[in-house]
Amino acid sequence: MSSAVEREAVAGEPTAPVVVTEAVPRGTPGVPVRPGAPTPLGARYRVGPDGVAGTNFALWAGGAESVELCLFDARGRETRAPLTELTHEIWHGFVPGVLPGQRYGYRVHGRWDPWTGGRWNPAKLLLDPYARAVDGDFALPPEVYGHVRDWPQQHVADTVRDERDSAPFVPKGVVVHDDDDWSDDHRPKTPWADSVIYELHVKGFTRTHPGVPEELRGTYAGLAHPAAVAHLERLGVTAVELLPVHQFAHEDHLLRRGLRNYWGYNSVGYFAPHAGYASAGTAGQQVGEFKRMVRALHAAGIEVILDVVYNHTAEAGELGPTLSLKGIDNRGYYRLQSDARRYADYTGCGNTLHVVRPHVLRLITDSLRYWVTEMGVDGFRFDLAAALARSMHDVDMLSPFLAVIAQDPVLRRVKLIAEPWDVGSGGYQVGAFPPLWTEWNDRYRGAVRDFWRGALPDVRDLGYRLSGSSDLYAWGGRRPYASVNFVTAHDGLTLRDLVTYERKHNEANGEGNRDGTDDNRSWNCGTEGESDDGRVRALRRRQLRNLLTTLLLSTGVPMLVAGDEMGRTQGGNNNAYCQDNETSWIDWGLLEDPGWRALTELTSRLIALRHRHPVLRRRAFFSGVPHSADGLRDLAWFTARGAEMTEGDWYAPAATLGMYLSGRDIPGRDERGAPIVDDSFLAVLHAGDRPAAFALPGAPWAERYEVVVDTSREEQTAAPGVTYRAGTSITVPARAVLLLRVG
């Protein structure tokens, strides 16, 4: 390269393309290609009108000059076939004799012009965005980058094209046969108000499970195994929310440190179940294994919700690899800045999909429909959903994405959960999504954590969170189940770590403990880290019981995190996204400890209580006004004196709160049209460090009270059964929840 050209490139001026050249094998030409059809997109095996079997290939590549289909045999030898048919920016062709199991990819030709967003480079083999199975791993050597990754002047490295062949180093798509009609599957179709969600990682849930055969541990088949399903059934959860199972890649900075992306929020294939979780093979077998897992969970009455990442891809920013969309049509798929070399990043991951564009919106909605109709799933949790709701720049609740979902006859009928924020300006949108949606409610998480660590200045916020967050969701026909209540999630401290650590301990991530949030709102009960002090250990377990009980008695949809019910710890790591090891995997040996086993039993008992009592899973917000002459209301709040809360009480510091739920005033009717009537309950939450007196309210609220749950007790296998007369002043143990049935 001449010094003059080098100076121009360093200055960032548009120049003729700068390339590093290495001969790219041309493959074997001459594969017969018939015109085929532009729809459906992807690779679809079928029998042609003349009875000849083959596969139709269709790829949207709007700005491309030409497209080559690349077929690979078992030894990795490549055969290329130009797709010459172009219909509405879709390149397509039917190849006779291409059968299920065939590995393939694309090379897309176009102008290398990073200054205007053009990053076409036919030296890079590209994964079909519609590939339904992927074979192989992403290793990210220099050859898989469209630019010269190790160019000396890194600030212009993305402008220097690398023409080394990437095919030997990247996974290939696999042609899959559609042979499943789901006629033997029965979806649970659990109403939102009756749902209890259990967030889990496919690999981590069974990786050490002693009841699952070793060869199935950490796989879709492992999750479908009766031993794994039995735990879910014993708990009583109605849905599993799976951390990402779309095919994903590992980030280069992790691979350089000998780590891997464990959570999977780095998608590269929106139709393919992640091959690393398959036990049966990766030449298409992962598709059938995933479907069998869904069937097994459905047979147990458990829905399957996928955590999906449509806001960004694994190709990162301008210095990231060229794996798929970046090489197909970079400026067609991604949001670019006014300087088109750079990406608009509302996700913190280097790029943002341009969902306003019709073909990008089609990619996402086609993917969603595929997982519902062909893979059997029951709903989705959308990572950084605010990024999907952005129009050109701002978050817009009338955006094309939300509008398309609202009218889609398939998608509007499944469970839709928004993570209602992104990292861009104006991205925090809790309570703002339209009525079709349910949202992760992080304000619930913050209020409950703060109450039990003694950091709430008053109980106003707690009252809203316990009763369904009407301040956020009582508009536009939304219901209490618009709020997914959670205390922990995959991102952050586990429940046990929440009462064990006040500081994050992420040293194993290799980022100097700089990663992960510092806002943990945790309390270590007086000692940082694990302790041999019996009093500290007992207090921590009591706090766990308090947090779980609060969550499962609150109005809304509770979400548990796998392992929290048995005291799983990550050693204080609150960002274990790269810990594919014992740090993140569930330790089933915890159930051998009577204390942790008792916590699991309490969790199961609370979920069963919730299922039995509609007053705990209301379908409408509380009114708080009397519905009868005796003055009884559907919801009432009490101070420790047994008096109803006044306006001043809500603003005063308090460690004790009584919440009365009337089973006589539940709105709505059952399936036969009869009124819904249930028991009434009084929940007393006391976060103080000393026992407190609480006067039980008298008429019209109750004549007597029976203790159903007392979190000061280690064992909760049966109801405590203690009964008190109304008006009695009882002693509430320090840091405890009492749930009393009204008589």
Descriptive overview:
This protein has 743 residues and is α/β, with parallel strands linked by helices. The chain contains 17 helices and 31 strands.
Short descriptors:
19% strand, disordered N terminus, alpha/beta, 31 strands, 743 residues, six-stranded antiparallel sheet, eight-stranded parallel beta barrel, 17 helices
Order of neighbouring strands in the sheet with most strands: 14-15-18-19-20-21-22-23
Distance between the termini: 88 Å
Number of helices: 17
Envelope shape:
elongated
Q: What percent of residues adopt helix (DSSP H or I)? A: 10-25%
Instruction: Tell how many strands the DSSP assignment holds.
Output: 31
> What is the SS-derived class?
alpha/beta
Low-confidence stretches: 1-25
**What's the Cα radius of gyration?**
28 Å
Quaternary state of the chains: single chain
Largest sheet: 8 strands, parallel, barrel
Mean pLDDT: 93
The amount of beta strand, in percent, is: 15-25%
